[in-house]
Amino acid sequence: MGEHTGRYVHVAEWFTARSYAVLGFDQLGHGRTDGKRGHTDSYEDLLEGIDRMLEEADRRFPGKPIFLWGHSMGGNLTLNYALRRKPDVAGVVVLSPWLKLAFDPPALTVIAARLLEKVYPKFTNDRPFDPTHLTSDPEMLVKLREDRRGHGMITARFFFGVHRAGRWALEHAQELALPLLLMQGDADRVTSIAASRKFAERAGSLCTFREWPGFRHELHNERGREDVFRVIDDWSRERLRQG
To answer: Boundaries of each Serine aminopeptidase S33 domain copy (predicted)?
Structure first.
């Protein structure tokens, strides 16, 4: 939420240096896409972005195994995509998913937003942006503060679409049919690690769950991010060996 592909260049560089091809895209209302910032007409429109990315991956690299990777709001989408679409991929990697938030928004704000979703779905809340909730790495904090494409805007329709999808994924975790690597830092103040634990428990043996002590919301931007990348690399290669 509020991100764009430019924030993942260092991730792509690490993995392409190890023989992976990496594709990403800016979601609706984000990055270089057109339209209102932080808005989508429907949650289904967000899932269709993944459809198009997989079609492009198949066009560019026919016959190659594919892993889906999603973080935070993207983790919500990736889990829902895996559960609802059951794509033909080798595995799924999800970091710090928005299944539930790590905090409870004020009750009156939620009530007002529910009403606005029905009468004015494009109503926008510009959330305060605190990069220290995302990473403890000083270098990454500077980059986040200087990022001009990132934003804190989210509309009522967008929020409740993702909110409901997170609850749906938790309720249907036992239907997981793909290998999943699910990871989160125990110092995450953005999304709920308790919800991720619950998802992993319900998903069963197909889900490998790992907690990162002291890591904040963006595992891929933390001081020990290369350790995170190595775990993903090892897990992915093991999936390919098991075939």
So the answer is: 1-223
Q: Which residues are paired to 155 by β-bridges?
A: 124
Separation CA 79–CA 63 (nearest Å):
23
Residue 183 is part of a domain; what is its CATH number?
A: 3.40.50.1820
221 close to 134: Cβ distance less than 8 angstroms: yes
Say what the pTM is. 0.95
Residue 111 binned pLDDT confidence (cut-offs 50, 70, 90): confident
Which residue, among 142, 111, 140, has the nearest Cα to 220 in the 3D structure? 140
For 13, the domain range is: 5-191+203-242
| Count of structural domains within the chain | 1
Domain annotation covers residue 35: yes
Cα–Cα distance, 187 to 75 (Å, whole number): 18
For residues 47 and 71, the answer to whether their CB atoms sit within 8 Å is no
Residue 119 lies in a domain: yes
Is residue 91 within 8 A of residue 180, CB to CB? The reply is: yes
Please name the residue that has the structure tokens 């033909």.
88
pLDDT at 104: 81
| 198 domain residue, yes or no | no
